[in-house]
Write a structure and sequence with these properties.
disordered N terminus; Immunoglobulin-like; 3 domains; Glutaredoxin; single chain; alpha+beta
Amino acid sequence: MRPALYLRGTMFKNLRHIGGGALALAFLITLFTPLLVSGQILDPVKWQIGLHPSPESGKTDLVFHASVEPCWHIYSQHLENDMGPLPTYFELQLPEGVTWDGEVRECAPITEYDPNFMMDLNFFEEEVFWVAQLDLGEAAATDSIKGFLSFMVCDSARCLPPEDIDFAVALGSVGPAISDYCPPSQHLCHGADEEHVEPASETHEDSDQEEGIWGVFWLGMLLGFAALLTPCVFPMIPMTVSFFTKQSKTRAQGIRNATIYGLFIIVIYTGLGLLLTAIFGPDVLNVISTNPYFNVFLFILLVIFGASFLGAFEIQLPASWANKTDQAADRGGIIGIFFMAATLAIVSFSCTGPLVGSALAGAATGSYAAPTAIMFGFSLALALPFALFSAFPGWLNSLPQSGGWLNNVKVVLGLIEIGFAFKFLSNADLVLQLGLLQRELFIAIWVAVSLAIAFYLFGWIVLPHDSDNRRIGVFRFSIGLVAFIFAIYLFPGMWGAPVKMISGFPPPAFYSEWQHGTSAEGGSHAGHVEARFTDYEEGLAAAKAEGKPMLLDFTGWACVNCRKMEEQVWPNAEVARILTEDVVLVSLYVDDRQALPEGEQRVESYGGKDFKIRNIGNKWSYLQASKFNQNAQPFYVMLDHDGNQIGGSAGYDPDPELFIDFLKEGLAAFH
């Protein structure tokens, strides 16, 4: 059974007892430990929970003190994004007579870019105190405060599964006062001698952020050039350039005025991105990109924009705005040029508005830099022609004449926008695990959109605003042919083909109808290998019956590196053959929150650490730790019929040859 939502707030406690399971929204994009530490259970957080005198008279503090190993961090209670990590959470059960204001206080967190989740997050390092201020009243000293806490810990490259800790503190065990609940960071990570910490990790992180900013900048440029080819903008290029060249006394003055005009276009559109971010906060775009309900809203919005491009209706700003800015433009001078640029922005809104919306949606990184970069790219692409054609007015003769082809561009952009709108609907569906838009249906929609583009450009589909000229030019036919070929390429994807050209856009391979329908049988489907079993005992019984070794795959539903192994390494011909013919493949999901029957729930200890086995994921986590001394995923190990390890083990490495060596070593030991 696939996980649904991992509920938050007061529901955390109940999740440990309900059937059907629920998985943390945080897990949807968590990177589960791509590196393995040989022979070591990762346990980077140590907790001390106790009562201490409060600075306020008559009060007592319940203090949760976490000591975090260098280079690891634990998250704040207050995370604005449901698709990020699991926030730290506390639930208290107070004895009669003890009162509490319901708040667990924390110090100001570190807010920085987290490469595991590719967003800015609030977290703590090294040493952190959470404090619940209590009034013990007349409660008996023999009474206890009980409860539990949930937390998640990551370093710069990996995260460990969320962990629940039960606690009980006697009211009579009040310790000494704590002088400072907010100790300064000692920056221990920079001097730590840790195997998994690379000296260049910070530089690599900065490089990733820089590449991300350049990516959204080029996306903005691309959308800006697309906006130039719409009927609202393209005809204004020669009109505006002619105005500047005719009204200016010298050619140099015309170039200067047109350049200023272009700069004002950049200022207006870039300012728009900054204004929206300043109003709603730097994380608003990140929320829009990950919150399921915002994703549904964005899907509807983009479909409306796409329909307007198809000619169903026009989206325009009030005409009075254009009239007022046009009147202000008559003043002349720099102020007049500014209002001319503002008039362009308002008049062309029906064409640029949908593209601006798409641009801002594409800048969902939770910082000021991204919307600024994408709007700068967008406006730069819009502004360049005005400056260039003013400097070289002879180039205007090379521009094609306005005509029906501009509407063709608008229609194609509308169809593309509708196709991309389903990506946002898919995001919402994946988070909510509704199963409404699985991989096959998503690809089928993209096939339909690609065919619609091709048939429209071939002239087989005619829309209301199209011209009567049915003659198809070579360029239009070529673009239509590309769209048709793209549809043919996507078509096998509905039956499990990898369609790597759009990797990352469709739902993952495991979120598909055929996969659900055949997972019990296992095997290989169109290059995708899947486990035959998700239970240890069932897999071992099948291995004995078939005379094959059992290959255990410790994985997670939302383990990104596990998916990379399954999509990049397992489809290799030799790997797929071994996994389907020579071994019995068993995938054990350590984050499966489906509750175990009451009789199977228990507490086990290993390596000085308690494992509360209440759900299926806990069961497999304990098996991995106790049997193989590991708690990182993905982790692969081969077993004989007595359940003993044969050969070595493997973790995340995208090189198929290394995985083949690991498999052959185990097979040789088995035989």
